[in-house]
Amino acid sequence: MVFEVLTGTGLAASAGLNAYIPLIIMGLLARYTDLIELPSGWQWLGNGWVVLILAVLLAVEVVADKVPVVDHVNDLVQTVVRPTAGGLAFGAGASSETVTVSDPGSFFSSHQWVPVVTGVVIALGVHLLKSAARPVVNATTVGFGAPVASTAEDATSVVMSLVAIVLPVLVLAFLLGLAAFFFWFLRRRSDRRRERQAARAAGFRV
Questions:
Q1: Residue at 202 is within a domain
Q2: Is residue 110 predicted with pLDDT exceeding 60?
Q3: CA dihedral 174, 2, 89, 136 (to 10 degrees)
Q4: Element housing 98 (H / E)
Q5: Per the domain annotation, does 33 fall within a domain?
Q6: Would 187 be classed as within a structural domain?
Q7: Pairing of strands 36-37, 97-98
Q8: Count of domains for the chain
């Protein structure tokens, strides 16, 4: 069951960065390759119309997330969308046959709410960290950092989705790297806040 959990976790975390990328990747791989075989309850992800609709939504998301201010509004909307996608991604991924999982455990099949809820929580956590980081990036780069950060997030979502399906053991490395980055970010943000407070205090003393 370890690989199933890692696959679901990687896909849900990817959805926290971009709601549509992991769902599209699962749909395309299930439709055109043998890398993943979706269970009967999730085969709709490979439907051509579903993939097309997700692709259109992805195009809107890609543009909106790269424009300062608009990206903040988009993040507010995505507070519902990304966790939902994370639940779907974990549920579908954890119960699918992949190149590393030939016999998915029956636990996720008989308790479908567990992977869905788990995916929602994982995606929500990643989304909240992403949403907290973006305003700081915009403020420190006068908005020029938004498209760079967004592109990096999209690329990470693509790679993590593929890794989760093909080589899920590497999901741990991705998650550790993601956690390290956000820990560094929060620490840097805290240091900058203390520096500003010290500067204001020094100004008042003068």
A1: no
A2: no
A3: -30
A4: strand 97-98
A5: yes
A6: no
A7: antiparallel
A8: 1
